[in-house]
Structure formats: C-alpha cells, structure tokens
Design goal:
homodimer, 269 residues, alpha+beta, Arc Repressor Mutant, subunit A, Chorismate lyase, 2 domains, six-stranded antiparallel sheet, 33% helix, DNA-binding
Amino acid sequence: MNLSELSETFAKWNKESAEGMQLTQKVTEFLRKIIMDGFLAPESQLPNELDLSTYLDISRSTVRSALATLEQGGFIKRLWGVGTFVAKNPPTYTNLSLNSGVTQLIRSSGAVPGTAEIMITTRPASESVCSLLQLEVEALTIVIERVRLADNRRVVFTVDVLPLKLFEESEKDIALTVLRQFIDDQESIYSFLRQQMNLEIHHGIAWIKPLSAEQYIAEKLQICEGCNILQIEQVDYSNNGEPLALSHEYYVADAFRFHIYRSNQGVYL
Amino acid sequence: MNLSELSETFAKWNKESAEGMQLTQKVTEFLRKIIMDGFLAPESQLPNELDLSTYLDISRSTVRSALATLEQGGFIKRLWGVGTFVAKNPPTYTNLSLNSGVTQLIRSSGAVPGTAEIMITTRPASESVCSLLQLEVEALTIVIERVRLADNRRVVFTVDVLPLKLFEESEKDIALTVLRQFIDDQESIYSFLRQQMNLEIHHGIAWIKPLSAEQYIAEKLQICEGCNILQIEQVDYSNNGEPLALSHEYYVADAFRFHIYRSNQGVYL
DNA sequence: TTTCACAAGAGGTCTGACATCTTTTTTATG
DNA sequence: CATAAAAAAGATGTCAGACCTCTTGTGAAA
C-alpha cells in the first residue's frame, strides 16, 4: 500500500468514522486495521513521519501519537534515526489484548462462524454478578446463552449478561425483540449496544482460568465431562468506567491458540 | 503524592535509569510504576499536563506521549476538557500484558517467593524449540527447570530455555557459573541477561493453554495427575526482534487470578 | 583499500500558539 | 429573585516549526 492509497483510504475512513472520535484515535485505528488486515506486510517500512502527516493531512504530532500507541501494542517498531517498521509478528485477532468478539475470532481463524442453542432469559442477578456489574441485589438481568460454531464444530459456549436497567422501561419489549434479532443475525452484542442503545464499549477486563468441563458445559460443547476447557470471564466497561456487560466464555481446549503481547516497558525484574 | 514529591522522585529516577533509554520511555515507566505501586490512588486526578511538564522538567509533548501510552494500557483515563485520572482498576502485576516474571508475580500477591528442585542442564534443542528460537537443528541450549514456591506452597513449575550461542565460547563456563548463582539467589533470568550478558528483553509473546497435569508435572507441583493447570508458553525477544529465550510455565489452577486489559480501540464488531 | 568526516534522512524533544470541550462564574433578562 | 444565556477559566487535543540526536550512506583523504 503506497502513500496515495493510504491518503485516499484514510480520507474515507476519516469521514465515515464516529463523529465524536478524536483524530489521534482515528489514525491509530486506521493504521492498526491496515496492518492487521495485511495491507502492510510485516517488517515493511512505513513512510516517514513527515510524509505520513502530509498525506494523511494531519500534523506530525498526531501521527507520532498514533505511532506511539501502535508501538506500545506491538504493531510497529520504531528505530531512532532509521525508520518505522511493521513488527515481525504483529498481533492478530487471537491476541487477547484486543477486545474482539467470538465471531470475529472464529472468522479470522478462517472458519465460518455459526450459532446453536440460543437461549435468552431474564433472571435476577446472583451475588457475584451483582458485584461485578455493580447492581443492587436481585436486580434483573438479561442472560444470553449461545453455543458458537466454527465450520459447524462446537468451539465455545458463551453466557452474556446485560443489566435490564440499560433499557428504558417503556422500550423494554421492543429492545428485547431487536436484541433477539441481532443475535439471530449473528451480529455481536457490541454492535447491538452501539447501534440500538448508543452505548460504546471502551474496554474489557478479562480473567482466564483453566477448568474441567462440568456436565452442563460438556453437554453444550458435546465434549466429555472433565475435558479441559479455558474459561474467560470478562466485564466490559463504557467510556465512563461503568460496567455494561458480563460474559463467560468456555473454550474447547485446542480450538484456538490465544496469545498475548507482553510488553517489558517499565517492569524491571 | 504531590507535585514536588513527583518532581524529586522523577529527577532521581531519571538519573538512575539506563542511559540509552529515551526520555518518553523513562517518564512512562516512572508514572506507571508509581501508579502500580499505589502512590497515586485509583480515580485520583493527576496534575494537568502543563504542571506535569514543568515539575518533571520536560516538555508537554513528552508528557503527552507518555500519557497516551499509559491510557492505551489502561492505567489512566483522559477526559477532554476535564483532566487526567488514574483508572478505576489500573493493571496489576497479574496483568498478563506486562511481562513481569514469576518472582514478581508471587511477591505482588503478598507471598514470599521461593525455589525448589532447581535443575540446570545442557541439551540439544528439539525441533519445536529450534523453530521458536530460530536455531539450527540440534543447537545446544541451557535448560533451567524450577519449582516456584509462594509461601512454601508449590504454585508454578517453570522450564526456561536459553540458546548456548548467547555465550562466547571462551566465557561459557564462567557464564554458567554466574547463571547458577543468579538462580540460587532468586534473581530473575532477565536480570542475568541484562547485567551479565548486556541483553535487554524488549517484549514477549505468550500462548496460553489449559492442560491436565501429566505425571512429571504433577509430581513437581505435588498435585494429582490430571489436575487442571494453566500453561503459559512464551518467547522473549530483544530490541532487534531476535528471540532470546523460551519459557514454559505450568501454573496450579487456582494459584493466581490472571487478568488482561482488553482494549476496544480500532476493533469494530 | 581503508578510514574518517560529512551530509542526508529519520525519529526524539522542545516551544508556543490555537482549537475544542467541560465546568464554573458572571451577566443579562424575565 | 430566579432562570437562562453568555462569558471566562481550565483542561485536553491539534497544529506548526525549529532544533537535537542517532543511523546510514557517501565521498574525500590517507
């Protein structure tokens, strides 16, 4: 991808992206996306900062800010006096530092995503759910259980929990119908929250844990009871730091090869 | 921690830190450390950027660069027009995005770290090790096996692999003796590499996997065969992107509560 | 041929100005 | 006096340009 292609693509991206979003963030996301989607080959050199700023039509400091973020995330490597390069092994969608959803994960592994045994129920939150989502005791929640398929193979069982208080009282029924539609269409819950509720997820905090499949989960995933599975428990937060959603994901042990980019910055041992 | 304390502490930090290190990086590490070590309370407001730059005696752009990195890592939150705040739940040492070592991990959980069953051997690399460390077939490696203790409880079994070619031919024996000394003193391999070999680890890439303990590992950890364990396989890279070390870590399932900060930046779902 | 000095090119840092957003204060208006 | 509008204050975001420092290539000198 050369400079003028970059220029055009970014101009389009710049117009289409959310209006409230800051310029630095747009540039960061733009560059990250073209790296992750393979438009800039690993180890290839990026244009210098001045050229980038000129062709993207932004200032050098904004470019630098974006590059700093990308370097921190392991996407690029900057060498003083030499240049800026795409990393040798830039993160992919199986990188847990990025909050991609299960569908994206399956798709990026080259498989066709699918869903089975969808169950949407309303139930009062358990004590642990209340504490994680900062709800009053027994507050009602919407619980979405799904078995996720990759090329028709059962790979993940997911349980998503949304506080019912996210919905206006008057709109509850409509919202639930729309939610159901999103799920059936294999749209992510994130896009439902963004498009329908105008809620943007800013980040998540995940806990990982090795488990043996208990009976219920083993049945869902159609694996033997006691088989190894990987649990990822995650709370997603809004821009304001409010918890918006809780999810439990149970991965068949060898379904994905999760990795993490671990920066050494600032940690002297 | 107020502005003048910040000022003094950073001046000291600035002098003591490695000479080749860039200013931005120093500031980033400094601020991250005082956040992680609890000198700035969660949700407390940081001084504004101008004050920070004045008191740390650096320019505002350098401050901003550091703050951008910290925000990306989930340590702080910046609100346009309002201010900069420590995150509600800033990452801790159990955050896998930071490449801290096992000793640091144990220490930060409040336990006293220890080591048992240290075994250091030299052996030719297996095929998989060769490919991960980019070695020629059958190249010799140093293998360090350790059982790690937290308050005398066996929590992790670690296997570290270093290519023998890291050492000059003439210094091999000396280096091995020193390495042995570092291990016995519970110094990390990272600090051995830095202090003795002048090699700096820049980042690692880790893969996580749920496992059942096979016999050998079960014995080392003194748990039942087939018990759940979490495996973290990691390759550490130098500044140049060369793989320097490989490690396998086997964690008793409930020993730690690993978490990951998952940024949503740039990933639209 | 080798070595050294210099120039070119790239990222790193500094400075100061202005833009934009949020919050608070002041002022004008009914 | 109460309320709404306007202004000011304070913070982060963006821009522009200069200069510093490091790496690399080139060409002149030994």
